[in-house]
Amino acid sequence: MSTTDLTTWSLMVRIYAESCCPSEATDVFREIQARGMRPNTVTIMNLLLVCAQLKNAYSIFQSDGHRDLVMFTAMPDHVFITTLLTACCHAGLIQDGLQILDSIRTVYCMKPTMEQYGSVVDLLARGVQLDDAYIFATEMLVGPNANIWGTLSRACTTYNRIDLGAQLQIIFCKVNLKTQGTMFWSCFDLLKALCHQMKEPVAF
After folding, report:
1. Is 197 buried (19+), middle (13-18) or exposed (0-12) by CB count in 10 A?
2. Any idea of the CA torsion for 60, 65, 67, 68, to the nearest 10 degrees?
3. Of 7, 63, 111, 171, which sits 20 to 30 A from 136 (CA to CA)?
């Protein structure tokens, strides 16, 4: 097989992953690394299928003493990290996602992007850890954008968290909505409808 045919190698990783053969998939991934090829986002996403089976994505990327599987070393850019965080969201790998976010600053000396912060909020919300998602959003180094508020708003509606929705409403009331986009208005309306279920809804 040609060493340059990354598509074929990536397909092998996926086939093994979908066949519930995580060890074989990981071996193929190691071979990709050994041949000096640079895994792309498709390869990474396929490997995350394996991570979902092993329930430990972070350990795969930090696996051996030589760190030959540390993908951040091979691809230390925000595109890769965002892809990995997004994959953790879909795989439900909460702890792995949090470790990956922490490594952005502590290991790779980069600042997380708004999109990466949003991925972590989404990760926590999908895991029904809405209180943690709220605390994370309000303690971010940069102010949350409308997409992050939207993620929290939708999660409050999905899981009927009227109490948390009311807290978000109070925050929204302090924001000049005239300067915000349609996403912010949608969040505001969504929470207003949710909080009408309360005996004493927040006044506007």
Report:
1. exposed
2. -90
3. 63
pTM attached to this predicted model: 0.68
Structural domains of the chain, with CATH: 114-198 (1.25.40)
In this structure, the number of other CB atoms found within 10 A of the CB of residue 147 comes to 17
State whether residue 125 is helix, strand or coil. Answer: helix
- What interhelical angle do 6-18 and 22-34 show, nearest 10? 160
Residues composing the chain: 204
Cα angle value 114/140/134 (rounded, 5°): 100
- The token duo for 66 is 């030589």
